[in-house]
């Protein structure tokens, strides 16, 4: 894994240049393709200011913020805006200037989004000048004076893992049924509220990562897996709950969170979203009727792809036999059809299984934040082998969104399935990673049902849950909460 040197990491900011940065973050998405050498010069300047602003044992100059930003132009812009807000607030507070890093700028390697691969670099490059590393989502707001008061309660020389505590109410498949006898006994951080590591702990974690392999090659839920790694089967640290790390605003909060469902203007039109539903003959009578009774009416462009033609639905027979797993051959056939004259031209492709529940109005609202001319993939982001040199992918069960530009690049590259029953989501992810197409995460996509009582900030939802049988009264109340699309099925 190649890591960029400390002088080529982030766009640093001096105080006279603050207003120039505010102008920069308002540039159109294409502006982020500028020569990285400008960023290199800014990075060196910010690092120098950080090192020379130390006035006492513990001010903001000893805090490094890591904004968990992503590579797509929308997310890079939001990360830059958050950084500018933090630095402006720090200048007004006059208690030292913190270092503010954008995660996606730390390395050309995309796998650092899962945090663990980034720790050795953070430790070696910024550890010597920082006492705390505070991790924020792009939409997490921080009150610096309140945060300093929180951090001052904990001895900086000791190992600390701070945040808003989440726990499972029941054993979860995505957490590999960990702590199945007492799921609530184990806590992990709510990313929206922010979380923090003391440098002492970060150093030790970085050292461990250099000398041992993870127990699993898969990254499914990074926040839970990070907490497990830090806990180290009881030999490490558990998360320390901090009430000032908040999602909902209160008077005492040091951090707050807005929403994972942003408002970027008018939603994408129905005609700009093509929906491809993967099904097979054995589910025509069982699953397809649920789709038709719920969310199909919100789609202007939708086709069902099956292994047989069925006029009652109707389905499109792609000429491929059904496979019990993987479906790579079917998915690539759908990609080719999407670009062909056989279907109306659309900017976005959504590929879902026939047991997926979706709020299409919320998806179209989310897509308004992205440029369809930019090659990108959007969904619930998983990873394989990320600590070393693996790849990311959007898991198929939660729905996969691809821009037209991404589909075009993918097919023109010659990338293909090694077998028709290969895992389509992983093959797509590997191809997109090799093409440097951003695999973009949204917490609004869920392979399994989002646990709204645990993480409400992830429940402004878009494509949702593997297994329509989960559409119990709970799920239907959830899906009805904002747009009433699924109310009639609930009544049934």
Report on the structure:
It is a single-pass membrane protein; Single-pass type II membrane protein. Residues 1-33 form the signal peptide. Pfam families: Fringe. Residues 129-215, 267-451 form the Fringe-like glycosyltransferase domain. Belongs to the glycosyltransferase 31 family. β17 (381-384) and β18 (391-394) form a beta hairpin. The model is unreliable at 1-56 and 460-492 (pLDDT under 50). Helices cover 30% and strands 15% of the residues. It contains 14 helices and 20 strands. α4 crosses α6 and α9 crosses α11 (404-412). It folds into two domains: 6-257, Spore Coat Polysaccharide Biosynthesis Protein SpsA, Chain A (Alpha-Beta Complex); 270-491, Spore Coat Polysaccharide Biosynthesis Protein SpsA, Chain A (Alpha-Beta Complex). The protein has helices spanning 18-24, 36-52, 73-93, 119-126, 144-152, 199-211, 222-231, 288-293, 328-339, 360-367, 404-412, 424-434, 473-483, 487-491; strands at 63-67, 99-102, 132-136, 140-142, 161-163, 165-166, 188-189, 195-198, 218-219, 240-241, 255-257, 273-278, 301-306, 315-317, 348-353, 377-379, 381-384, 391-394, 400-403, 439-441. The strands form five sheets. Strands 14-13-12-15-19-16-20 form a seven-stranded mixed beta sheet. The protein has a six-stranded mixed beta sheet with strand order 2-1-3-8-5-10. The radius of gyration is 23 Å and the shape is elongated. The protein is of the alpha/beta class and 492 residues long.
Topology readout:
Elements (H helix, E strand, L loop, with lengths): L17 H7 L11 H17 L10 E5 L5 H21 L5 E4 L16 H8 L5 E5 L3 E3 L1 H9 L8 E3 L1 E2 L21 E2 L5 E4 H13 L6 E2 L2 H10 L8 E2 L13 E3 L15 E6 L9 H6 L7 E6 L8 E3 L10 H12 L8 E6 L6 H8 L9 E3 L1 E4 L6 E4 L5 E4 H9 L11 H11 L4 E3 L31 H11 L3 H5 L1
Parallel strand pairs: 1-2, 1-3, 5-10, 12-13, 12-15, 13-14, 16-20
Antiparallel strand pairs: 3-8, 4-11, 5-8, 6-7, 9-17, 15-19, 16-19, 17-18
Protein name: Beta-1,3-glucosyltransferase isoform X1
GO molecular function, one term: glycosyltransferase activity
Family: Belongs to the glycosyltransferase 31 family.
């Amino acid at each position: 894994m190649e890591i960029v040197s400390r002088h080529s990491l982030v766009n640093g900011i001096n105080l006279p240049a603050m207003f120039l940065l505010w102008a920069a973050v308002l540039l159109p998405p294409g502006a982020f393709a500028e020569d990285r050498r400008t960023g290199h010069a800014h990075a060196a300047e910010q690092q120098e200011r950080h090192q020379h602003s130390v006035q006492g044992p513990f001010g903001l100059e000893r805090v490094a913020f890591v904004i968990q930003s992503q590579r797509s132009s929308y997310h890079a812009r939001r990360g830059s805006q958050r950084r500018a807000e933090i630095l402006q607030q720090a200048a007004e507070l006059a208690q030292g200037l913190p270092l503010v890093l954008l995660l996606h700028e730390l390395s050309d390697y995309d796998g650092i989004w899962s945090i663990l691969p980034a720790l050795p670099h953070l430790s070696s490059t910024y550890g010597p000048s920082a006492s705390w590393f505070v991790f924020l989502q792009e939409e997490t707001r921080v009150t610096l004076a309140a945060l300093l008061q929180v951090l001052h309660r904990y001895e900086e020389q000791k190992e600390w893992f701070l945040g808003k505590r989440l726990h499972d109410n029941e054993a979860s498949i995505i957490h590999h049924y960990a702590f199945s006898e007492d799921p609530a006994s184990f806590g992990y951080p709510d990313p929206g509220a922010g979380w923090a590591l003391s440098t002492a702990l970060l150093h030790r974690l970085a050292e461990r990562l250099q000398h041992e392999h993870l127990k699993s090659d898969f990254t499914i839920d990074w926040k839970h897996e990070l907490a497990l790694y830090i806990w180290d089967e009881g030999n490490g640290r558990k998360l320390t709950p901090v009430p000032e790390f908040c999602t909902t605003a209160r008077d005492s909060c040091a951090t707050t969170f807005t929403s994972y469902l942003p408002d970027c203007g008018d939603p994408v039109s129905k005609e700009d979203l093509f929906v491809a539903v993967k099904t097979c003959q054995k589910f025509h009578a069982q699953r397809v009727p649920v789709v038709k009774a719920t969310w199909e009416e919100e789609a202007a462009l939708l086709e069902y792809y099956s292994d047989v033609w069925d006029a009652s639905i109707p389905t499109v027979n792609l000429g491929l036999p059904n496979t019990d797993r993987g479906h790579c051959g079917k998915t690539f056939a759908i990609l080719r059809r999407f670009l062909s004259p056989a279907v109306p031209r659309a900017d976005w492709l959504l590929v879902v299984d026939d047991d997926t529940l979706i709020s299409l109005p919320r998806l179209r609202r989310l897509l308004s934040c992205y440029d369809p001319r930019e090659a990108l993939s959007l969904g619930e982001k998983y990873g394989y082998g990320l600590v070393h040199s693996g790849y990311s992918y959007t898991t198929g069960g939660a729905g996969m969104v691809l821009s037209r530009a991404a589909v075009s690049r993918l097919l023109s590259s010659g990338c293909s399935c090694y077998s028709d029953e290969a895992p389509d989501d992983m093959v797509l992810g590997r191809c997109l990673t090799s093409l440097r197409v951003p695999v973009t995460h949204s917490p609004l996509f869920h392979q399994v049902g989002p646990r709204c009582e645990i993480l409400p900030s992830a429940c402004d939802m878009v494509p949702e849950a593997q297994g329509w049988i989960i559409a119990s009264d709970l799920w239907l109340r959830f899906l009805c909460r904002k747009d009433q699309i699924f109310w009639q099925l609930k009544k049934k």
